Amino acid sequence: MSAANAQVEFGAKVGFDLTNYWGEDVSHTLQPNYQAGLVMEYHAAPKFSVAPEVVFAAQGGKSDNLTFHANYVNVPVMLKYYVAPAFSIDFGPQVGFNVYSKVTPKDQDALDLGDMTNTVDFGLGLGATYNLTNNAFIQARYTMGLTKVYKDQSVDVMGYKLTTDNKAKNGNIQISFGMKF
Question: In angstroms, rounded to a whole number, what is the distance separating the alpha carbons of residues 161 and 166?
């Protein structure tokens, strides 16, 4: 595909996520969440394209007594290699901007963790996209956070001492459906 024939596509996607925190001294289970956002794909060559996105994602983790909610506006830039005309392997960096961060102790009200949460999250994504039609697609992706979610602090959460000096990082398994316009 020459530069004159390069094609740009725009669209939207929604998805189901399983999120958790991972890292040293982190013991969290998967938590169901969601995502929704806008996508673009620039076909730079017959088998290669660049696909930036802007996605709102509910993320977090769950331990025995606490459920963490950390919502982000994520901006992944996926490099796509088409192994077949309708199927690509996707890899690329992601930067996330925290917009909401709370913890909910079991059977109690949520506590705001905004001041304890790092504002920016960097990660790497690996996945695949299958184009069902020219306009509809499905995606599967794992995004691994590379930066700590929380600043090194501790706070009393309704009688439970919460220490955020661990190495908790975001982990996100995504299954998405999207449409190109």
Answer: 13
Q: Where are the domains of the chain?
A: 3-180
Tell me, rounded to whole angstroms, the distance of Cα 120 from its chain centroid: 13
Q: How far is CA 24 from CA 27, 123, 164, 173, in A?
A: 9, 17, 12, 20
Q: Burial letters for 123-139: b for 16+ Cβ neighbours within 10 Å, e otherwise?
A: bebebebebeeeeebeb
Check: CB of residue 128 under 8 Å from CB of residue 90.
Answer: yes
User: For residue 162, what are its two tokens?
Assistant: 């919460």
53: Cβ contacts below 8 Å, ≥ 6 apart: 13, 37, 38, 39, 40, 74, 75, 76, 77, 78
C-alpha dihedral over 138, 142, 143, 145, to 10 degrees? 160
Range 3-180 has CATH code 2.60.120.200: no
Mind listing the pLDDT tens digit for each residue in 142-177? 999 999 988 876 666 656 556 655 678 999 999 999
User: How many angstroms separate the CA atoms of 75 and 118, rounded?
Assistant: 16
Rounded alpha-carbon distances, angstroms, from residue 100 to 83, 109, 159: 38, 15, 23
